[in-house]
Design brief:
The protein is of the alpha+beta class. It is built from two helices and eleven strands.
Length: 140
């Protein structure tokens, strides 16, 4: 079932199916960024300027975080002092470097996420478990 939301951003109205958005970034300053499906256009919602839409995003994130269903595996990942909520089923490749770091790229964006097993063990373990479960392969 689609989760449609009407968002006002830069004097334009968008109607977005949040079930098609695959990554959200919650920054320390309170802003939330997400990328429109099938494009790299970021939408940045600031609670000071747009509290209603900001609350819509937070409500959606509260519903999906930790959700594991057939087409979605939502996880919170801390990266560069920001909190990302990502649907890992939409990631098309994962790369493990010789030092153990795992890199993947956000869908509908060009942002790489690099997870270090030492500095971010919780997020690292979530990604390892997902890769094993979803692909049958494991990083050694």
């Amino acid at each position: 079932m689609a989760y449609w939301v009407k968002i006002l951003y830069e004097r334009k109205e968008y109607v977005v199916n949040f079930d098609s958005v695959n990554a959200f970034c919650y920054e320390q300053n309170g802003r939330v960024t997400f990328w429109l499906p099938d494009s790299a256009i970021p939408i940045v919602i600031n609670p000071q300027n747009n509290l209603d839409d900001y609350q819509k995003v937070l409500n959606y994130l509260e519903c999906v975080t930790g959700l594991e269903i057939e087409n979605a595996h939502w996880v919170k990942i801390i990266y560069e002092r920001n909190e990302y909520v990502i649907n890992l089923t939409c990631i098309s490749s994962f790369c493990q470097e010789s030092n153990g770091r795992i890199t993947f790229w956000l869908p509908d964006g060009t942002i790489p996420i690099i997870i270090n097993p030492v500095s971010n063990p919780d997020s690292y373990e979530k990604v390892l478990q997902f890769v094993q479960k979803a692909t049958g392969y494991s990083f050694s």
